[in-house]
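Review box. Two proteins, two foldings.
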Amino acid sequence: MKLSGDIIPQGEFRISKDGKRLVFLGSKKDDDEVEIYVIGLGAKQEWIQLTANDLVESNIDISPDGSYASYGAFENGE
Protein backbone atom coordinates (compact mmCIF):
# COMPACT_ATOMS: atom_id res chain seq x y z
CA MET A 1 0.00 0.00 0.00
CA LYS A 2 1.42 3.38 -0.98
CA LEU A 3 0.32 6.12 1.43
CA SER A 4 1.88 9.08 -0.31
CA GLY A 5 5.35 9.75 -1.61
CA ASP A 6 5.55 12.64 0.84
CA ILE A 7 4.44 10.87 4.07
CA ILE A 8 6.77 8.64 6.10
CA PRO A 9 5.20 6.52 8.91
CA GLN A 10 6.83 7.15 12.32
CA GLY A 11 6.07 4.43 14.86
CA GLU A 12 2.57 4.14 16.30
CA PHE A 13 -0.44 3.04 14.26
CA ARG A 14 -3.88 1.52 14.86
CA ILE A 15 -6.38 -0.17 12.53
CA SER A 16 -10.10 0.24 13.17
CA LYS A 17 -11.92 -2.98 14.13
CA ASP A 18 -13.96 -2.83 10.93
CA GLY A 19 -10.66 -2.82 9.00
CA LYS A 20 -11.58 0.24 6.93
CA ARG A 21 -9.22 2.87 8.39
CA LEU A 22 -5.68 3.19 9.70
CA VAL A 23 -4.53 6.03 11.95
CA PHE A 24 -0.79 6.60 12.29
CA LEU A 25 1.97 8.99 13.27
CA GLY A 26 3.94 10.26 10.29
CA SER A 27 5.98 13.11 8.92
CA LYS A 28 6.26 14.73 5.55
CA LYS A 29 9.40 14.01 3.57
CA ASP A 30 12.20 16.42 4.59
CA ASP A 31 10.26 17.58 7.70
CA ASP A 32 10.86 16.57 11.33
CA GLU A 33 7.33 17.49 12.50
CA VAL A 34 5.38 14.31 13.32
CA GLU A 35 1.59 14.60 12.94
CA ILE A 36 -1.39 12.25 12.96
CA TYR A 37 -2.81 10.92 9.69
CA VAL A 38 -5.69 8.63 8.80
CA ILE A 39 -5.97 6.59 5.62
CA GLY A 40 -8.82 4.53 4.22
CA LEU A 41 -7.97 0.88 3.56
CA GLY A 42 -9.32 -1.08 0.63
CA ALA A 43 -10.77 0.61 -2.45
CA LYS A 44 -10.80 4.13 -0.93
CA GLN A 45 -7.19 4.89 0.04
CA GLU A 46 -7.31 8.65 0.51
CA TRP A 47 -5.33 9.98 3.48
CA ILE A 48 -6.13 12.94 5.71
CA GLN A 49 -3.79 14.87 8.02
CA LEU A 50 -5.59 15.20 11.39
CA THR A 51 -3.12 17.43 13.25
CA ALA A 52 -0.85 20.32 12.31
CA ASN A 53 0.84 21.74 15.39
CA ASP A 54 4.05 21.92 17.42
CA LEU A 55 2.83 19.39 20.01
CA VAL A 56 4.17 15.87 20.48
CA GLU A 57 1.33 13.39 19.88
CA SER A 58 1.29 9.85 21.27
CA ASN A 59 -1.03 7.06 22.44
CA ILE A 60 -3.11 7.24 19.27
CA ASP A 61 -6.24 5.13 18.98
CA ILE A 62 -9.23 4.83 16.66
CA SER A 63 -12.87 3.96 17.38
CA PRO A 64 -14.08 0.52 16.23
CA ASP A 65 -15.97 2.03 13.27
CA GLY A 66 -13.10 4.41 12.38
CA SER A 67 -15.20 7.56 12.95
CA TYR A 68 -13.10 9.00 15.80
CA ALA A 69 -9.43 9.18 16.68
CA SER A 70 -7.99 9.92 20.12
CA TYR A 71 -4.49 10.81 21.24
CA GLY A 72 -2.46 12.43 23.98
CA ALA A 73 -0.32 15.49 23.32
CA PHE A 74 2.21 17.66 25.15
CA GLU A 75 4.52 20.53 24.36
CA ASN A 76 8.04 19.45 23.47
CA GLY A 77 10.32 19.81 26.51
CA GLU A 78 7.50 20.06 29.08
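Next protein.
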Amino acid sequence: MGADLGEQELDALKAQPVRGIIRSGYEDARPSEWLAQRTGATAVLVPQTIGATPAARDLASLYDAMLDSLLGALPAGGQ
Protein backbone atom coordinates (compact mmCIF):
# COMPACT_ATOMS: atom_id res chain seq x y z
CA MET A 1 0.00 0.00 0.00
CA GLY A 2 1.08 3.53 -0.63
CA ALA A 3 3.44 2.61 -3.45
CA ASP A 4 1.64 4.98 -5.82
CA LEU A 5 1.13 7.73 -3.25
CA GLY A 6 4.33 9.64 -2.61
CA GLU A 7 5.36 11.98 0.16
CA GLN A 8 4.52 14.99 -2.00
CA GLU A 9 0.89 13.85 -2.32
CA LEU A 10 0.66 13.09 1.40
CA ASP A 11 2.06 16.55 2.21
CA ALA A 12 -0.53 18.12 -0.10
CA LEU A 13 -3.33 16.27 1.70
CA LYS A 14 -1.97 17.45 5.06
CA ALA A 15 -1.76 21.05 3.80
CA GLN A 16 -5.35 20.94 2.52
CA PRO A 17 -6.94 18.37 4.78
CA VAL A 18 -9.96 16.33 3.83
CA ARG A 19 -12.64 15.53 6.38
CA GLY A 20 -13.04 11.89 5.55
CA ILE A 21 -12.01 9.02 3.36
CA ILE A 22 -15.11 7.18 2.19
CA ARG A 23 -15.30 3.50 1.39
CA SER A 24 -18.04 0.93 0.83
CA GLY A 25 -18.40 -2.28 2.76
CA TYR A 26 -17.23 -4.41 -0.16
CA GLU A 27 -13.89 -2.54 -0.35
CA ASP A 28 -10.82 -3.52 1.62
CA ALA A 29 -10.50 -1.25 4.68
CA ARG A 30 -6.69 -1.28 4.69
CA PRO A 31 -6.06 1.41 2.04
CA SER A 32 -8.48 3.91 3.59
CA GLU A 33 -7.14 3.22 7.08
CA TRP A 34 -3.56 3.61 5.82
CA LEU A 35 -4.38 6.96 4.25
CA ALA A 36 -6.34 8.11 7.30
CA GLN A 37 -3.39 7.38 9.59
CA ARG A 38 -1.05 9.43 7.43
CA THR A 39 -3.34 12.42 6.81
CA GLY A 40 -5.32 12.74 10.03
CA ALA A 41 -8.60 12.24 8.16
CA THR A 42 -11.32 9.90 9.36
CA ALA A 43 -11.93 6.65 7.48
CA VAL A 44 -15.69 6.30 6.94
CA LEU A 45 -17.61 3.16 6.04
CA VAL A 46 -20.76 4.15 4.13
CA PRO A 47 -23.29 1.37 3.46
CA GLN A 48 -23.85 0.91 -0.25
CA THR A 49 -27.07 -1.10 -0.19
CA ILE A 50 -29.89 -2.32 2.00
CA GLY A 51 -28.53 -4.92 4.40
CA ALA A 52 -24.91 -3.79 4.09
CA THR A 53 -24.99 -2.81 7.77
CA PRO A 54 -27.44 -3.68 10.53
CA ALA A 55 -28.75 -0.11 10.46
CA ALA A 56 -29.63 -0.29 6.73
CA ARG A 57 -32.79 -2.39 6.94
CA ASP A 58 -34.83 -0.69 4.20
CA LEU A 59 -34.46 2.23 1.80
CA ALA A 60 -35.28 4.91 4.37
CA SER A 61 -32.92 3.45 6.98
CA LEU A 62 -30.21 3.02 4.31
CA TYR A 63 -30.32 6.77 3.63
CA ASP A 64 -30.26 7.44 7.38
CA ALA A 65 -27.27 5.11 7.82
CA MET A 66 -25.43 6.82 4.95
CA LEU A 67 -26.00 10.26 6.44
CA ASP A 68 -25.11 9.09 9.94
CA SER A 69 -21.83 7.66 8.65
CA LEU A 70 -20.93 10.84 6.80
CA LEU A 71 -21.97 13.20 9.57
CA GLY A 72 -20.11 11.06 12.10
CA ALA A 73 -16.88 11.86 10.27
CA LEU A 74 -17.31 15.58 10.86
CA PRO A 75 -15.73 17.16 13.93
CA ALA A 76 -18.02 18.40 16.71
CA GLY A 77 -20.01 21.34 15.44
CA GLY A 78 -20.34 19.84 11.94
CA GLN A 79 -17.65 21.83 10.21
